[in-house]
Structure formats: C-alpha cells, structure tokens
Amino acid sequence: MTTLYIAGDSTAARKKAAHAPQAGWGMALPFFLHQDLGVRNHAVDGRSSRSFVDEDRLAGILEAVRPDDVVLVQFGHNDQKTEDPTRHTEPWTTYQGFLRRYVEGARAHGARPVLLTSVERRAFDPEGNAVPTHGEYPAAMRALAQDEDVPLLDIQALSLALWGKLGTEETKRYFHWTATTRDDIHFNPPGAIAVARLVAAGLLSEGVLAPGDVRRLGEEIPESWITWPAAAPS
Question: How many whole angstroms separate alpha carbon 58 and alpha carbon 53?
C-alpha cells in the first residue's frame, strides 16, 4: 500500500479535541483518496523547514518510508519568523537548502517528494482583493522544484484565488473564526476540506497519483467527517 507522508506546519497538522473546531488540511486529505492509500500526518504546529529537520522529524519520516511512498513537504509560514533563529530561513539560500534535504532524503529511500507552496493566510486589501503574505518563499520553492525536477503543487496560488473568490466575509467560515477567536491562519473544517481538495486535485494533475487513487473531488464533504483525537500525536 502506498502511503503519503505530510511534513508541514500547523496549517496541515492534526489538532487535538481541545483545539476544535480548528483543523489542519491533513485531517481532511484521506476523504479525497482511495481507501487503499494511507496518510501519515507528521505536520506539527509551529515548525519551519529548519526546525522540522533539527528536531529529527524528517529523520522519523525517512525511517518509515518505503519505495513509491509520497512525501508531501509544505513549509513557509514559520520560515518567515526573522525573530526566531531556530525557525527562520532565507528564501533563496537556507530555505532552499533545507527543502533539498527533504527532496534528497525521500529520493534516497525510493520515495517520491512533492513540494507544496504554503497555503495563503486570510488577508484582503481595502478593495476586498485577496493579497499574498508569504513574500519570496513561494517563488523560491517554485524555482527549486524546477531545478530539482520535483512535482510542485502551487497551493499558495490556488488558495489565494479561492479566498478571493469567496470574499472577505465568506472566508471567515473557512478560517478559525469563532465567537471568541479571529484567526486568519488556521482553518475551521470547511477550510481544511477545501485545501485538502486542492492538494488531492494537484496530486492527480501532476501525475503523482492516478485517477483511481483520487475520489470525491466534485462532491460535498460533510464537516462532521472531521474528528479530533483526545490528544495530538507527539
């Protein structure tokens, strides 16, 4: 059985019950994949391409992968944190350098790396246009994917277009907006499902997965399908 491993940050991570209704897109990805495909979500809140490696989380994935498995890599949100040297990377140097470690590590174990640009935050200009927030990081990942001949899912561009189509008010339902919380980074179930749909469709269009591997792309997914464990994985 082919397994998809997710290396990423809080936008993809599995949330525990105390954080509901916040949800990462990795929690919804299995809804769009054939049941014979496994998903191992190693994404963790607050991690960057650097800190995920430094904490040996990439090493843990590489110990588990088998030939023909898929390693999905999405970082950028926390790489931007210039005030934190344990997480910060520079787009065209250290960021690309760390991403190469994921690509080379996966390939060394016979697995297939896939790079995903960071999903966009909920940000709009005064005219109501969705605006990008990740600076040079998406461009740096696109360039690396071309140089290394790695499949790229441009989730930053796709999500930016989606948030723009939904608009300032409707996107509040997709992000972690509640009676007490206004969070323009993390998702509620509709957002997690929407981004997971983009990921599954991208895996199909890029030839990473075959048509029979993907399902429900045109179907409505009930929010109730997302569940929260009592405790998040370590």
Answer: 5
Distance CA 184, CA 173 (A): 11
204-227 tens-digit pLDDT = 999 999 999 999 999 999 999 999
Take residue 105 and report the two structure tokens written for it: 């590590």
Q: Are 137 and 95 in contact (CB under 8 A)?
A: yes
CB atoms within 10 A of CB 122: 23
Can you spell out the DSSP letters for 89-104? Answer: --IIIIIHHHHHHHHH
- Say which CATH topology domain 3-225 has: Rossmann fold (3.40.50)
Is 234's pLDDT higher than 90?
A: no
Domain layout of the chain by residue ranges: 3-225
Q: What is the pLDDT of residues 147-198, one digit of tens each?
A: 999 999 999 999 999 999 999 999 999 999 988 999 999 999 999 999 999 9
Phi, psi of 36 (to 5 degrees): -80, -10
